[in-house]
Design brief:
3 domains, 17 strands, alpha/beta, 8-stranded mixed beta sheet, binds hexanoyl-coenzyme A, 2-enoyl-CoA Hydratase, Chain A, domain 1, single chain
């Protein structure tokens, strides 16, 4: 018994030390925390229950038989964030570069399976050189086992990836299939093939950072949701983010007590929309005014900024916000914004999070690049996502709602539950100028007539009255009352039950 306890303590000590003091120091010199330090920041104090601290790899090739470190490069287990259960893994770069062996993968798979069974989110802290090169195909099998769990867990429990070091090769596909990816600036990167291979194949000279750093993925590719300055900031923000999420698809989003009154009015909203309808304004001003305590957790702010997505709360309950941003591309829908918002809408629908949609959209972005890039397929993703969503859906049209984009943006026709419009709303097939140029094509040289027709069209259609007269808009509301009207709507919709027809799964236009 004594010798067991002694050996146990030795192994635990070795596991805690990971790759040793020198490698820990190197990790710190790079501005990175160690895998264990990261978990200390992420989880509530003393809440972490570690599993498989003694697991070692089973490889004997290339001298690996004599080179074993308990834990094998990944720390796994469960704990709490603000008292709520979460399963975690944290890859330890100081142990074989955090590379994934068969045993390392088995540890991750074990916590993923348990998270699915008990209904709790999974957070992965990634810092790994990829497949354990000495293990060959066993490592690939390990990755596939993790991928399979990612897919099974999708839509059942929230999955969050935090990239805090290298994540390369096929290894990127596990985070890619999780719901959210957060990255750390300057110390993390994700790519399928690194700079050396790129140089050989395409002759492009590129740095790790440029190819797959946090800025690239949060501004250009849209792969990641947010980029943080350092490990500490990333982990603390994940704690804040976690508070918005339900534990599983069987649970309601969490309730956070708030002093913010549901019927609080915001007089400044009455002058938010400029008189000149071609002038922009910041839709975020509206979001911050409407939500509880102005607390809005925006995702992908630097990517496809013509649409805004993120979480907030109304009367303490999480909501997903989707909003056109008139300041960028006049709020047009394009390929990137449609994909960005569609995935977010689907996440909210998976996890019982009501959707609030603010609409000011002049239409789909025209042009060769958009058509050639497949706006038809990509634009339909957002349409599909809103149409299939059965969570409570409240929509407010602040200004333009033109053409197909009107239909797409959670309209009444896509089972919008409550559809409001501000008096400044313009709901029509297209803007007055474009409309007149088409229907009076032969009379365009008569300037006076064109102006008269444009004015006639504007008066007739560029307002919310026609749509309200048909019942497509439930009520025209004064901007300053928007928060109160949304809160009431959500209260009314609290017990909404709506089911789509039985199917194995749908076939969203990917
Ligand atoms: C085994 C690895 C390793 C790996 C790193 N190490 N990657 N050991 N398998 N994949 C070890 C190193 O030998 C070294 O050990 C320690 O980790 C730290 O690595 P360094 O190279 O010293 O660190 P650094 O300079 O920071 O460079 C990090 C790195 C580099 C860029 C990640 O290590 C690297 O390029 N590694 C190989 C990446 C790779 O090609 N992986 C396979 C990709 S294919 P010592 O003992 O010296 O400290 C893949 C397929 C997945 O992953 C497929 C899924 C379907």
């Amino acid at each position: 018994m004594d010798h067991v306890l002694k050996e146990l303590e030795q192994k635990r000590e070795a596991a805690r030390l990971g790759g040793g003091l020198k490698r820990i120091e190197t990790q710190h010199q790079k501005g990175k925390l160690t895998a264990r330090e990261r978990l200390e920041v992420l989880l509530d104090p003393d809440s972490f229950e570690e599993w498989d601290m003694l697991v070692e790899h089973r490889c004997h090739d290339f001298g690996m038989g004599k080179n074993k470190i308990p834990g094998d490069g990944v720390i796994t287990g469960y704990g709490t964030i603000h008292g709520r259960l979460v399963f975690v893994f944290s890859q330890d770069f100081t142990v074989f570069g955090g590379s994934l062996s068969e045993a390392h993968a088995e540890k991750i798979v074990k916590i993923m399976d348990k998270a699915l069974q008990v209904g709790a989110p999974i957070i992965g802290l990634n810092d790994s050189g990829g497949a354990r090169i000495q293990e060959g195909v066993d490592s690939l099998a390990g990755y596939a086992a993790v991928f399979q769990r990612n897919v099974l867990a999708s839509g059942v429990v929230p999955q969050i990836s935090v990239i805090m070091g290298p994540c390369a090769g096929g290894a990127v596909y596990s985070p890619a299939m999780t719901d959210f990816i957060f990255m750390v600036k300057n110390s993390s990167y994700m790519f399928v093939t690194g700079p050396d291979v790129v140089k050989t194949v395409t002759h492009e000279a590129v740095t790790h950072e440029k190819l797959g750093g946090a800025l690239t993925h949060t501004t250009k590719s849209g792969v990641a949701d947010l980029a943080f300055e350092n490990d500490m900031e990333a982990l603390l923000e994940v704690r804040r983010f976690f508070e918005f999420l339900p534990l599983s698809n069987r649970e309601e989003p969490p309730l956070k007590s708030t002093e913010d009154k549901p019927d609080r009015t915001s007089p400044s909203l009455d002058i938010l929309v400029p008189h000149n309808s071609s002038k922009g304004y910041n839709m975020k001003d509206l979001i911050y005014k409407i939500v509880d305590e102005g607390d809005f957790f925006e995702l992908q702010p630097e990517y496809a900024a013509n649409i805004i997505i993120g979480f907030a709360r109304m009367e303490g309950r999480t909501v997903g916000i989707v909003a056109n941003q008139p300041l960028v591309l006049a709020g047009c829908l394009d390929i990137d914004s449609s994909r960005k918002a569609a995935r977010f809408v689907r996440f909210c629908d998976c996890f019982n999070i009501p959707l609030i949609t603010f609409v000011d959209v002049p239409g789909f972005l025209p042009g060769m690049a958009q058509e050639g890039g497949g706006i038809i397929k990509h634009g339909s993703k957002l349409l599909f996502a809103f149409a299939e969503a059965t969570v409570p859906k409240v929509t407010v049209i602040t200004r333009k709602a033109y053409g197909g984009a009107y239909d797409v943006m959670s309209s009444k026709h896509l089972r919008g539950d409550v559809n409001f419009a501000w008096p400044s709303a313009e709901i029509a097939v297209m803007g007055p100028k474009g409309a007149v140029e088409i229907i009076f094509r032969n009379k365009l040289d008569d300037k006076e007539k064109v102006e008269a027709y444009t004015e006639e069209y504007r008066e007739k259609f560029a307002n919310p009255l026609v749509a309200a007269g048909r019942g497509y808009i439930d009520d025209i509301i004064l901007p300053h009352t928007t928060r109160g009207r949304i809160c009431r709507s959500l209260q009314m919709l609290k017990n909404k039950r709506l089911e789509n027809p039985w199917k194995k799964h749908d076939n969203i236009p990917l």
